[in-house]
């Protein structure tokens, strides 16, 4: 793998953060660490580095994985958030996105390069940078370029993504059961 396939992003937004514990998404799959990177379409520097790395991975795949030619239905990792996700997930609007994963735990640091050990510090919605590597694959008839996750740097907090979740105290505050009420002893099978 050459350095031409490695990219250190500019500031991106993190989504689907799974970088502290490996997880298998389907039964029988290997557990992996993963993250989705939302890249602002205005970040031309990061996007040009990513596009160059994808092209380098394609050239590597032509010579090492795909029999000397570019496959017709090549799967590429950089996707358009406006076209694919903006309706159901507004945070994808105005962004490209890609998913990166690794079987090895990525290094995770803060803006001052101090290791982050608390998994709650890096979450879907915060901002940071990522070290990623693009590589060709040929698996089960699928050919394309995938993204390996190397390391993550959190730069700043952001609005958490996903459904707002109420605390246990909020959920149960207005419905304290009367444990002495005989209605709790109803025989439903009666």
TrEMBL record:
Pfam families registered for this protein in UniProt: Enc34_ssDNA-bd
Q: Note the InterPro entries from the entry.
A: Enc34_ssDNA-bd (IPR022595), NA-bd_OB-fold (IPR012340)
Region (Disordered) residue spans: 160-190
Superkingdom of the source? Bacteria
List, alphabetically, the Gene3D superfamilies matched: Nucleic acid-binding proteins (2.40.50.140)
Xref: SUPFAM superfamilies: Nucleic acid-binding proteins (SSF50249)
> Mind telling me what this protein is named?
DUF2815 family protein
